[in-house]
Amino acid sequence: MRTISYEYLCFRPAPSLSWTKTGAEFPAKVIGQTGERLIIPDAQPEDGGEYTCTGMTDVDTATAQTLLTVISPPILKTELDSDTTVRKLSDVNLRCETNDQSDSYVWFYNAEPIIPTDHLQQQGENALLIKRVMPSDDGIYQCQVTNQHGSTLSTTQLKVKETLPEKEEKVEKSEPEPSGKNVK
């Protein structure tokens, strides 16, 4: 991700200056909270809001506000797991989502757009249901989320197995033999 810095100038020449963010805690990464320049490196949407610069001299106090809106490509709040291993004939739910309901989603299987069928069902825009998976469903699944500022991609590799070990089989209890060896 590229680093974006926003810089605001306030009162020149500078008297005693300070910056605040209305209704929120000041981002820790901000540079210049008490100077004439406020710099927000790697600005993210959550850095947006109203910022106030207050200038004080021995004679007067003045303030100026600015509203910062940070725009960016979609930021995923739920991503696909990098690997998804499932048992043959089970149903698989893949989900990715952002906080913005205006984002659009496109699903891909092995780099080709998915056309929904009875077997591959899109559940809303942000979820894909694969019913009764078969070994032929092995492959790369991707969720591409787009807004007016760009797109973000989340990817999983789906592996279909004939059987998967049961969780209970992984945690086996054993009793010691008289010789000290474990017996299953």
From TrEMBL:
- Positions of the region Disordered? 158-184
Q: Which PANTHER family match?
A: FI24025P1 (PTHR44170:SF54), PROTEIN SIDEKICK (PTHR44170)
Task: Give residue ranges for domain Ig-like.
Answer: 1-69, 73-161
Q: Does the keyword Repeat apply?
A: yes
A single GO BP term for this record reads: cell-cell adhesion
Q: Where is the composition biased (Basic and acidic residues)?
A: 159-178
Q: What is this protein called?
A: Putative contactin-4-like isoform X1
Query: Has UniProt tagged this entry with the keyword Repeat?
Result: yes
Q: Which InterPro entries match?
A: Ig-like_dom, Ig-like_dom_sf, Ig-like_fold, Ig_I-set, Ig_sub, Ig_sub2
Q: Which organism is it from?
A: Stichopus japonicus
Which UniProt keywords are given for this protein, alphabetically ordered? Disulfide bond, Repeat
